[in-house]
Amino acid sequence: MTIADNKKAFFDYFIEDRFEAGIVLEGWEVKAIRDNKVQIKEAYVTIKGDELFLFGAHISALPTASTHISPEAVRTRKLLLHREQIDKLIGKVVRAGYTLVPLNLHFKGGRVKCEIGLAKGKKMHDKRATEKDRDGKREVAAAMKTHRR
After folding, report:
1. 138 lies in a domain?
2. Does residue 89 contact residue 19 with C-beta atoms inside 8 Å?
3. Separation between Cα atoms, residue 138 and residue 149, nearest integer Å
4. What local confidence, expressed as pLDDT, does residue 84 receive?
């Protein structure tokens, strides 16, 4: 079940490969995510040492959050992947100029997972071509719909 999508990622990047990663979260964050108080539009994945971190994801605290903690809406959260996957991603980012972008947050087996994409940036003309293709498909679909009637 999808919690939050990053539609901007598909507009700004060519997604080459996808990986599913776990996220290290605090209890109040899980409750806020279940209540759909999360936004990953401006988020990105950074590499520190030999680990991956989700930076810029905004999780709004619920008003019923505990009084003995101070919720931080935008904090760096560690991503959990297998060592081989991390090494592969770091190699591609460092050597080949790829970017790591969070694509969506979803539940899997009661846990929150983050799907990250290995992406190449689009140039402005690529973005225009993508938009043109999407508009063309929309027009064809509308024509097919009216033709059936």
Report:
1. no
2. yes
3. 17
4. 92
